[in-house]
Design brief:
The complex is a heterotrimer of chains A (305), B (571) and C (336). By secondary structure, chain A is mainly α. Chain A is built from 14 helices and no strands. Chain B has 2 domains: 221 residues, Dipeptide-binding Protein, Domain 1 (Dipeptide-binding Protein, domain 1); 217 residues, Roll (Dipeptide-binding Protein, domain 3). Helices cover 28% and strands 19% of the residues of chain B. Classes of the chains: A mainly alpha (305), B alpha+beta (571), C alpha/beta (336).
């Protein structure tokens, strides 16, 4: 167990270093930052001066070194676009994304698992076919359409919920459903097939033979064993939630990092792009580590591996 | 990256995207020119533009003579009620007067802050904090200050506040992009009397009037209170700013909304808001904004484009209002950038043929759902030098076009055709598709190459692409600046670099002081470009807003695509 | 091969009330053939089988894979209802029992399956696995359950510490011991052993078989021992049944069947398993020809397509299971 944790920690560290390299060079792939910061009539000296002031005239390895030093000291530089420390700009929005991500994750997991289990225990029946169709639709209909349909129905027609914005629990409902939609469909399918696999096994047969109540068979025996693939899929889905859905944030006027990222990339705001991508990725890597350690708790086989 | 470098870093970032005004040296008043040219960005974002429901404003004339407070309307009812406005974006949404970035932050600036002069509803320059101005010599302007102007908190605006605001504006960290021009062109700002401020410029300043807020909607520098700043401190000032505009900033929630509240002390009684509270909500998606006006979560929404407006037509409680001519798009002959080019684009017959091949009427009607095509030149009806008879659009004539192509020997040639998605001008990719098929009919082939708008503009400014390329602009009314920026050799988006005739004319314009003579030169310059077929222009587009029945009336400034003049809203 | 112990050899439907019996049981599945029109086709997995198992005896059930053994075990375990015929436990139809009867059935019948990996829930400790039947079916206190657990573990030869471990911490043979401990936890009358040793290493098989034998003697358990390997069954069984394509072809006391096999299929199976030559352990190809598809049974005798002595009448008439010697039943036209 200790060996496992240590090796996962080392892997994580290596991944984070890798991220820093990729993030740094990727940001610079978006184009010359100065091109958008300086008017076309500017002289060559002006451009050089600008580059110098931005620290863009240093050789790339030096720039990278400054970036890494910044990571360690928590100083990611100032955003070209907002003029404030990039980390502050990012941290202003990130909690909003996390809150929505958490709500979406709950919707996706509860919705996907319950519908998937229902489909599995009624395999072949009407409910199962219905859930299969819903799951297919979920994966076929783009989330922006779901978002707009939700708004038209719940906000415009029924007037139950506010159309958009982030203020109070009510405003979480529609964006959470819309952003969970795709994942929920994927989780439904995964839960269903994973449950069906497990339900075929001998220990389920034996449990039923011994008269274990069906509810206990489903949740205590089958579901716990079906959980690992469901959780691995879910941990992948979380990545999408946490990195902020541009589309969902746009539709629901959600002040998260999705929109911020796109704007930062388009305006070639290297420090902000680097901050967003690095901090978010690192967060996800750590989250992933957490999930892996959680697996070890859930699945005794991994614990010893 | 130290903070010290902010200045350089930010100084021109936004301007670069748009037109960057040539600060050519002409000493003249430039007052005749009424420009609606914000230094702001517009192409980054969704634009909708205001039509002028503009009645002539309550403020004074645009010349240096004072109009003073006499224009104040007598009856000013107490502001009451509240409205919610959904805007597509507020860009770098800052409440600070000293970090107002232009374009898409206009809804904040135009309601909360002012400079010496500002635009009225007709987009004509009118005195604001100044009462009048004098230009004793080409590099000096003296502003006489309007007496009795008060900040939101009731304290008087003093000459010291104005000078302090200049320093604060150009020294702000980070700097507002438009401040770079002012910083670079101004030598000194001095208090030369209890109610006069004298500004000295490095060069003669005809076009720098723009920067001083003397023309059109431009701003000069925003004025704030030193005493207040010292009281609340630098950090506090960002969230509790102080200004003189018709609305005061109440709360700014970045990325979400900004709350404004009526300033009953506003010096121009005609512009004391009728509405007490305004919330500007940022709602990036058009569909969501439309849903909001249906549910009553918004009273005004911006950025209603084409088909979306149709869906609102059946709603009895919702009205669509428009501002005309807020943007134009022209296709340029980019081979002309190369002085040594042997391209057939040098042949005016070819250029004319390309114009004649395009069915502008069909594009206006079928694609843009508009009335009629505009002139085949980059100019707006409200620009200085515009003449409806001089710049008539050409009628489509395929036979003549084919004949001209033959004469020019251009049959079967192929050109690259750039394309991008603009927020100010809808459907450029679709229009380029249409152009390509029109040109195919006359035997000219094109290969469409689409780019993300930032990259597209960067290339355009670098003048590297060859072939053909569209580019769109928001409305502006200063024909002189239009000519210098978009026609002068080396100008940001100029494609007439190698036309000596036009260049000579621009040279003359830059040294002409007399406004009448200036206007004549502008007219001649535009006519030259029109006759030589330098542009293939798509129709002007309009900006649309939807307003709920709660709003009885709302006047907007001519040609301005951003939410503005909410002080005129009556419920 | 030891001789079978001298428990009473009972003929079908004779003697005391058998613990479990199948009366002319047929199980038909409807198979959807490909395509949308897919008229369902009938697969007769078990075809008119009658069997009975008296208490504390072992019935060996042998046949190639696909012969219906697994379906038969599901029928015996009341996991599937027969299409026609009856499954009786202690004289009662298991499909028309009341709640109490069902509970009793759960207590009285259990099973050990072939794969010791898939038959133990990997997320449960041995304690939970073995005592779950007790928790569900008995009102035992925690303390009593723990005591019972320890005695079960010692019964199957596992150390007390095994209780706290997970299945993956054991070898295949040990896992099968756990499975056996679970199966006997409620002192059942019948345990269906569905190939309990075929997944195990040869060296361990005898240990497990001896354990089963020992437990049977101690607890008076009846077994239905399903296997494809005749050798293992001989060692364990009192009665033998040989299945081919869903039907019984021969049914006899163990000595009779091994000493004097009558059906050509049984003979072929014995031939294939008796000489302990390497490579001959399995029944992979003991006979020539393919097993016909159960969807498309041959006319007449279902074994005739592979039978070395088949005659013309075998294609016309389906042979019935008949008693040719006392207690020895066979279904072949050519046996007298």
């Amino acid at each position: 167990m200790t060996g496992y944790i240590v090796s996962r920690l080392i892997q994580t560290l290596v991944t984070i270093v890798g991220i820093s390299v990729v993030v740094f060079f990727l940001a610079r792939l978006s184009g010359d930052a100065t091109a958008l910061l300086i008017p076309p009539e500017a002289t060559a000296e002006d451009r050089e001066a600008l580059k110098e002031s931005l620290g863009l005239d240093d050789p790339l390895p030096v720039q990278y070194g400054i970036f890494v030093k910044g990571i360690i000291t928590g100083d990611f530089g100032d955003s070209f676009r907002f003029g404030e420390p990039a980390l502050d700009v990012f941290l202003d929005r990130f909690p909003n994304t996390l809150k929505l991500a958490a709500a979406s994750a709950v919707v996706a997991l509860l919705g996907g698992v319950s519908v998937g289990v229902l489909g599995a225990i009624r395999a072949g029946g009407f409910v199962d076919r219905l859930t299969t169709v819903i799951a297919l639709l979920g994966q076929a209909i783009p989330s922006f359409l779901i978002g707009i349909m939700l708004i038209l129905f719940f906000a415009v027609e029924l007037r139950w919920l506010p159309t958009s914005g982030m203020a109070g629990p009510k405003t979480f409902i529609m964006p959470a459903i819309a952003s969970a939609w795709y994942s929920m469909a994927a989780l439904t399918r995964m839960t269903r097939s994973s449950m069906l696999d497990v339900m075929e096994t001998d220990y389920i047969r034996l449990a039923r033979l011994k008269g274990v109540p069906e509810r206990a068979v489903i949740w205590k025996h089958a579901f716990r064993n079906a959980l690992v693939p469901i959780l691995s899929l879910f941990s992948l889905q979380i990545i999408f939630f946490v990195s902020g859905s541009v589309v969902i944030e746009q539709i629901f006027a959600w002040p998260g990092i999705g929109q911020l990222t796109i704007q930062a990339i388009f305006s070639r705001d290297y420090p902000l792009v680097q901050t967003i991508v690095f901090v978010t990725s690192t967060f996800l890597v750590l989250l992933n580590l957490g999930v892996d350690l959680l697996y070890a708790v859930i699945d005794p086989r991994i614990r010893l591996a | 990256m130290e903070r010290d470098n902010y200045w350089t870093r930010n100084m021109r970032r936004r301007i670069g995207r748009r037109g960057f005004l040539q600060t050519s040296g002409v000493a003249a008043t430039g007052l005749a020119a009424a420009a609606a040219f914000g230094c702001g960005s517009d192409d980054d974002d969704e634009t909708t533009t205001a039509t002028a429901t503009g009645t002539a404003s309550a403020t004074g004339t645009a010349t240096g003579s004072a109009t003073g407070t006499s224009t104040a309307s007598a009856t000013a009812a107490k502001p009451a009620g509240s409205i919610k406005v959904s805007v597509a974006t507020l860009q770098e949404q800052s409440a600070s007067p000293f970090f107002q970035t232009g374009g898409l932050s206009s809804p904040i600036y135009f309601h909360a802050y002012e400079g010496f002069f500002g635009g009225d509803l007709a987009a004509k320059s009118t005195p604001r904090l100044a009462l009048s101005m004098e230009q004793p010599e080409p590099t000096t302007i003296t502003f006489k200050l309007r007496p009795g102007v008060k900040f939101w908190d009731g304290t008087d605006v003093t000459a010291e506040d104005i000078k302090w605001s200049f320093d604060a504006y150009v020294g702000n960290n980070p700097p507002a992009p438009p401040s770079a021009k002012i910083k670079n062109s101004v030598t000194s700002v001095d208090i030369t009397g209890t109610d006069t401020i004298t500004i000295k410029f490095k060069t003669p300043v005809v076009f720098q009037m723009e920067e001083m807020g003397v023309t059109g909607v431009s701003r000069g520098w925003p004025v704030s209170s030193r005493a207040h700043y010292e009281k609340v401190g630098a950090e506090g000032f960002k969230s509790q700013p102080m200004g003189t505009g018709p609305f005061a900033v109440k709360e700014n929630k970045v990325g979400q909304y900004i709350d404004l509240v009526a300033n009953e002390l506003y010096w121009n009684k005609a512009w004391v808001p009728r509405v007490q509270n305004v919330r500007l909500n940022i709602v990036p998606d058009q569909q969501t904004r439309i849903a909001q006006i249906k549910t009553g979560e918004a009273d005004i929404i911006e950025g209603i484009i084409g088909p979306a407006a149709e869906t609102l037509k059946n709603e009895s409680s919702i009205k669509i209002v428009k501002t005309d001519n807020t943007a134009q798009m022209t296709v340029r002959f980019q081979d002309l950038w190369d002085p040594a080019t042997t391209s057939v684009q040098k042949d005016p017959r070819f250029r004319e043929a390309m114009k004649l091949a395009v069915d502008q009427e069909s594009i206006a009607k079928n694609l843009l759902k508009l009335g009629a095509p505009g002139p085949d030149i980059l100019v707006f009806p409200n620009s200085t030098g515009y003449d409806a008879n001089m710049f008539k659009p050409l009628k489509r004539d395929v036979a003549k076009a084919k004949d001209l192509i033959k004469q020019a020997g251009a049959e079967g040639q192929e050109f690259r055709l750039g394309s991008y998605s603009s927020s100010s001008y809808p459907m450029i990719p679709e229009i380029m598709q249409a152009y390509a098929s029109f040109w195919k009919e006359i035997g000219i082939n094109t290969k469409i190459e689409t780019k993300e708008s930032g990259a597209y503009f960067t290339d355009f400014q670098a003048k590297t692409p060859r072939g053909l390329g569209p580019i769109s602009f928001p409305n502006f009314s200063n024909g002189g600046i239009l000519l210098v920026t978009y026609y002068k050799k080396g100008g940001a988006y100029a494609t007439t670099d190698n036309d000596d005739e036009i260049q000579a004319l621009i040279g003359k314009l830059e040294t002409e002081i007399d406004p009448k003579a200036q206007e004549e030169l502008i007219k001649q310059g535009l006519k030259l470009a029109y006759d030589k077929h330098y542009f293939i222009a798509a129709p002007y587009v309009e900006s649309q807003w939807a307003i709920s029945s709660k709003i009885k009336s709302w006047e907007r400034q001519a040609g301005l695509p951003y939410v503005n003049s909410l002080q005129t809203v009556t419920l | 091969m030891t001789t079978s112990p001298a428990s009473t050899v009972t003929a079908p439907k004779a003697g005391d009330t058998p613990l479990i019996e199948l009366l002319n049981v047929t199980k038909v599945y409807t198979v959807r053939a490909g395509g949308f029109r897919g008229q369902g086709r009938q697969l007769r997995a078990v075809d008119g089988v009658s069997l009975s198992v008296p208490a504390a005896t072992t019935l060996g059930l042998v046949g190639e894979s696909g012969c219906g053994k697994t379906t038969l075990s599901r029928l015996l375990l009341r996991q599937e209802p027969p299409t026609t015929g009856e499954v009786r436990y202690a004289g009662k139809n298991v499909w028309s029992m009341g709640r109490g009867g069902q509970k009793d059935f759960h207590r009285q019948v259990s099973a050990v399956f072939q794969d010791p990996y898939s038959s133990l829930n990997p997320r449960h400790r041995v304690r939970e696995i073995v005592t779950e039947p007790l928790m569900v079916n008995s009102g035992m206190s925690r303390h009593d359950r723990e005591e019972k657990l320890q005695s079960l573990l010692s019964d199957v030869g596992l150390p007390p510490a095994a209780a706290g471990l997970y299945p993956h911490e054991f070898s295949g043979g040990q896992r099968q011991r756990i499975a056996i401990a679970r199966a006997i936890a409620l002192n059942p009358g019948l345990v269906v052993l569905d190939e309990p040793v075929s997944a195990l290493d040869v060296s361990i098989r005898a240990q497990i078989l001896n354990l089963l034998k020992e437990l049977q003697e101690r607890h008076q358990i009846a077994y239905v021992f399903i296997a494809h390997d005749l050798a293992a069954v001989e060692h364990m069984s009192d009665q033998m049944a040989v299945m081919y394509l869903g039907a019984l072809v021969e049914y006899a006391p163990v000595e009779g069947l091994y000493g004097n096999p009558l059906h050509p299929y049984t003979k072929a199976l014995l031939l294939a398993s008796q000489p302990p030559q390497p490579g001959k352990m399995s029944l992979e190809a003991p006979l020539s020809g393919e097993v016909p598809s159960p969807l498309n049974l041959p006319s007449g005798c279902r074994f005739r397509t592979r039978c070395p002595i088949a005659e013309a009448r075998c294609a016309e008439l389906s042979p019935q299971l008949r008693e040719v010697r006392p207690g020895h039943y066979v279904s072949c036209h050519l046996v007298n």
